[in-house]
C-alpha cells in the first residue's frame, strides 16, 4: 500500500533517487533555490498563501493520475513500473507531509484550515490507490516476468505486493470498497482530532490579575482584557500559555480551571469512533484485531502488552513514592485542608 510517514508516523518509500527540486511539478525546494524559483512556505513550491493549498493538492492528484496510467496501461512489463510507483509515493508524500506539518504548527488559522483540507483530499485519494487492482496486477506481472531484478527491486516489489494483499486487494469489489471506506474514515477521524485540538486553542478563560501571581506584572499587562469584565485578563488556551500558568501560578483554583479548560473533550468521542472503525477494518480484513494488522510480520500481538505490563510493574513502586511526595508538597504549600487531587495527564 502507498502511505506516508511524517510527524504522526507516515512513511514514503524512497528506494530510487529522484530530485526534490524539479521544475515540472510539486516539489520540495533545495537550499540553493530562491524566491524567484517559486519557493514557498515549508519549502513547498508555490505555497505562499492559504488558497495555494487547493492548487497544490489538485496538481498532486493530477500528476499521480498520470503515473497510475503509466503503471497500469503499459503493454510491456518492465522494472520501470517500480520507479513509477516510487515516484507516485514520493509525489503524494511531499504534499501530505507538508500539509501535516502546516496544519499542526502554522500560526495562521487560515493556513492550518487549508492545509487540513489538502491533507484530507490527498489522503482520501491515497486510500483509493491502496485498492487499485491495476497497480497490483502490474507488480504481479513484473514478478512473474523474466526480468532480472536487483536485490533492492525485489525487496520493494515484494513489500508493495504484500502490503496490497494485506490491505484487502484480494477481496471482492464490494468488500474492497468497504476497506477503502473504513481507511478513509480513519483518515477523517485523524483530521477531526487535529481540528478539535486547534479549536480548543481558541477557547479563552479570564481571571483577575491578582489571581495570576507570581507571574511578572509586565506579562499580565500584556494580556487582553475581557470584554465582559474589563477588570479581568484573558488566558488563551495555547500550549505555551497553559504551560506557563500551570508551572508558575500559585493559586490552585486558577491552575485547576486552566487544566480543565485545556482538555479537548470532543476528542474523547473521536477516539472512541476511531477504535470502533479500526476493529471494523480488522474484521473486514480477517484479522483478529487492529493490533494484528499493525504488528504483522514484526511481533506477536501479546508482545506489546507483556512489555507494558512489565514496565508498569517495574516503575509502580517508584511512581507511588513520587505521588506521595507530590501530595505532601502540595499540602505544605496550600495547607492540609486544601484537599489534594492528582489529575490525569491531559491528552
What do these coordinates show?
The chain has 347 residues and is mainly α. The protein has 12 helices and 2 strands, in the order ααααααβαβααααα. A two-stranded antiparallel sheet has the order 1-2. Helix 2 packs antiparallel against helix 3 and helix 6 (173-200) packs antiparallel against helix 10. The longest helix has 33 residues, at 302-334. The two termini are 30 Å apart.
Tag the structure with descriptive keywords.
single chain, 347 residues, mainly alpha, two-stranded antiparallel sheet, 12 helices, 2 strands, 60% helix, 2% strand
Topology, element by element:
Blueprint: H1 52-73, H2 80-105, H3 109-129, H4 133-144, H5 151-166, H6 173-200, E1 204-207, H7 217-221, E2 233-236, H8 239-248, H9 252-262, H10 266-284, H11 290-294, H12 302-334
Antiparallel strand pairs: 1-2
Helix pairs in contact: 1-2, 1-3, 1-4, 2-3, 3-6, 4-5, 6-10, 8-9
